[in-house]
Structures are given as C-alpha cells and as structure tokens.
Amino acid sequence: MTVAAASNFSLAVDDLAAQFTETTGQRLRVTTASTGKLYAQVINGAPYDVLLAADIARPESLEASGAGVPGTRMTYAIGELVLWSRQFDDCRAALENTDSARVAIANPDIAPYGVAAREFLQQAGLWRSVRSQLVIGENISQVLQFTASGNAQLGFIARSQLRAPSLPDAACTWPVPSSMHSPIEQQAILLQHGTGADGARRFLQFLRSDAGRAIIERHGYRLPDLSE
Fold first, then answer.
1. Homologous superfamily of 2-78+183-218 in CATH?
2. Which of 73, 120, 125, 184 could cysteine-pair with 189, CB 3.0–4.6 Å?
3. Numbers of helices and strands, H then E, in the chain
4. 28: nearest Cα among 4, 58, 53, 6
5. pLDDT tens profile 128-142
6. The three-state (H, E, C) secondary structure of 128-196, written as one string
7. Among 79, 86, 95, 99, which Cα is nearest to 147's?
C-alpha cells in the first residue's frame, strides 16, 4: 500500500506507518512532496492508495472528479506555522526590519503552508516590503533546508518540523497567530487506486484512532474534533 503525504507530515507519517505495521502487519510505502505536486501526480495516474494532503481543496477536488472515493475524505490534522531563524534573536522584530535578509516560504501556488505564510505577510502589511527578498521553496521541507543552511535568514516552517532530529539550534522561534491566515486543515482521502489495496481503509481509520491521534499530536499538530 502506498501513502502519498504532504512534506510537512513526513516525520509524523513515518511514525504512523511504523505503528500501523506493528499493529496490523500491513507494510506501507510512503512518498512525500508538496500537496500540489502530489495532486498533479494523482490526476495523472500515479498509483497512490491514500493521499494525506495539507489542505482541503485538493481532496475535495479529487472527490468531486471521482479520483478520490466519495465519503472517505476526512480531516486528520490541523497544522501550525512558525517563523524560525538561526540568526536573529527576535524573529518577529527581524521580519519588520529585514533589510537584505532573505525570507523563505513554501511556494503558495502548490503548498498550503506557503499560502498561510503569504496570507500572514499580507495581513501584517509586510508582503510588499518582503516580496523582493523571498526565497521560494517547492515545499515546506525545502524551506527548512534553506533556513537551516543559512541560504535564508528567516523561514516560515511547520511547527511539526521543530521535532526534526537534524534541526540545528534556533536563535528564535515565533508562532504565527492562526487568526492571521486561513486554517491549515489537512485532509486525507482514499484514492480509487486504493479501493483494492489491503489495509487502505484501515489506515484511514487508524489516523482517527487514539493511537494515531496521539502520534499526530506529538508531532506538533492540533487535532480535529471527531464529533464534527
């Protein structure tokens, strides 16, 4: 069974896959990329069984087109955005006085965390001043690489990435207020290719189990209300 997961969820999905395999004996193959890239691959026939997107729009579109199985779409996590730097002592203040500092964000055209970063910068009145200094990553993982390596001095990353074992020490971390961007509601959907895959539906159920939700929360995500 193959699971395609948004880049921000790479660490969490590895832990989920390990626990799922231990519990059920069912092995998973995991592919990670930006949500937009994975969506394009699905509609072009990529043989994925489950999609773990970082937004609602792509799973909705797949469900509407028939590429996703109706009735299987569900929210599995709510992401949070943070501003991170190895250079500045105060991330928020540095953003106001970037001068020549480069600011990394995920591509807003294909990555939901990039959309959230752009929305925040627009609401904060900083989009015009920062735009010429942006370093655009294909996905949120590349944003972290840019910022950790020093190719960008500030980066908008996922809170979940703060758990990365290879992450160098930060000089500052600032949680971006969720009120200043659209909710990063991450949805999963069973794909048509997965209707015959042993365990695909069981994996979606596992995401909503106590064990699955504990792993997701441990990786820095807020949990959806299962009663909705």
1. Periplasmic binding protein-like II (3.40.190.10)
2. 73
3. 9, 10
4. 4
5. 989 999 999 998 889
6. HHHHCCEEEECCHHHHHHHHHHCCCCEEEEEHHHHHCCCCCCCCEEEECCHHHCCCEEEEEEEEHHHHH
7. 86
